[in-house]
Amino acid sequence: MTSKQRQIAEYIARHSLLSRYTETPLMLGPHTWPSSQYQELPTVEQFAQELLRDSEFRALQLGNWLRTPEGEVISQAVSMVIPEAYGPAFNLAIDGLTLAAELQAKEGRQTAERIGVTIGVGLVLALIFGDQ
Hints:
62% helix, mainly alpha, 2 strands
């Protein structure tokens, strides 16, 4: 198990984001959540957006601006915490985490591009007005 897999598995085990989407109690690590809060599964996109709103998910930095984690890392981490028998929740966790990581990486690249453009404009202006 890699450090990143452990971090992902611990994140999933600590949070009830997935528990409200399972029909039976989820046993995630030391936690058990009752099924009384069951809700219909969101789309992968909705779940990814829910993850992106969570500051602890963002702190995992699964999608830094240079790369996103391989799907294998995420699926192995999820399987350490959620049994495949939870089919829809299991798949939602993998697909949602992967999409959220990709969206986080895209945000990072866009921010880096904006910073690059700002620096470039600043350098051009310094060259133009620095000679006067």
